[in-house]
Amino acid sequence: MIRTVLILILCLATVSAASNPAKAQEPGREIYMKHCFWCHGEEGRGDGPAATGMLPAPRDFVGAEYRIRSTPHGQLPTDEDLRRAIAQGLPGTPMPGWENFLSDNELGQLVEYLKSFSPRFQTEKPEPMKTPTGTGSTERGKEVYVKAKCFMCHGESGRGDGGITAALNYQWGLPHPARDLTRGWTFRGGHEPSDIYLRITGGLNGTPMGPYQDLLDEQQRWDLAHYVTSLDREPTESSDDFVVVAVSIEGEIPDDPEAQQWQQAAAIAVPLAGQVVLDPPTRWWTPTAVTATVRALCNGREIGFLLQWNDPTGPDTTRPDTTRPDTVLADSALLQFATEEGSKPYFLFGDADNPVRVWHWRAGHAAEQSTATGSGTTQIEPEDFQVTSSWKEGRWHVVFRRPLSGEPKFEAGRFVPVLFSLCDGGNGESGGVRAISTWLYVTLQPPSTIRPWLLALASVLGTVVAEIWILRKLRS
Kind and range of the H or E element at 233? Predict the structure, then answer.
């Protein structure tokens, strides 16, 4: 009798939940309102109180235009797709991963609640695509890259600087050019060949990136995925290197960025972020330069820096600013040094108590040197450095050279604070609207001496003498 009653209660509870889906989704709603509402909004339209200024904007769950899926173009994502996006987050976006904060059960409840925002989940059953398991060919994939005209958007070298990408993104209302394929960590669905295969096959809903399922056969898509993976030269957004060591060389510091001498210096990957601008007081959320590579050389007379970065909008030397008639936009780079050892002034142009020395390069313009004690306090000085620049395959290469006799003083054992800042004129950047790094340090490689060899020789001789002494004692 008791068993029958329990079964009846369970049946009634199941029927009640089925007839009242909102009540069945209540646990998921509680999780959503605690963690997700702030960005995605109470009704799931991507308009939460923290959404303003976010790039990309939070997902609109009502529109259900999901880009990162394992399903064909136009279809909804699977439950596993949603779970993965929530658990691991979306790299290169404000969406963090929640796997360390939510249990498996809570992730499942949240997935069910997210699906309640769109009625499509009630009638459509998404089916995941299969990925090949065979071997892919990078060489064949490169041929497919050309055949499928991927370079028209992603560029010849995959840096997102293709000729039609800006026009396409403007037409679709998107803020950035095509994906830079050399920066794997920004691939929101992962950067393994299997992940990229799904993006190629199913496309990205709501973007110019359409599906290639009917345009390329399976092997071609698999080969293309392997080629895209081979372009990934920047697998992470962070760097553990905070010291730029100027390597000692013989002869002159070359102006040619492809000269062999530069390969002797370690390439330091410097992450960049949008600067907080003064008018209006907010952060610049849409810089196109997000990483720069820095190398440094020294020959005993001069120090040289090679600064390189991707610029998907092309080489801009003089571009009128439609919003500020008196401003001319141009690609530019700043090297900013603290004038006092150990000090770390305010990030951009220092502050009243901590002046900075600035080297300023602008494409198509004369270089400038200045001292600044805050925004708007720049004092132009005669420059004591030389700069040469070149543009190749969607990338700027700028060489700065200066005698060691100037200020700041560079020497072995002395760590001079330095930061790097870039402007993309084609992205409307100038003044305080720019990408900027944190403070790093620059120092010279210690000169080579014979002291280590003398110490090693002394150690060996000392060991021999000690052994002879011990042997004599034993014999006596």
Answer: none
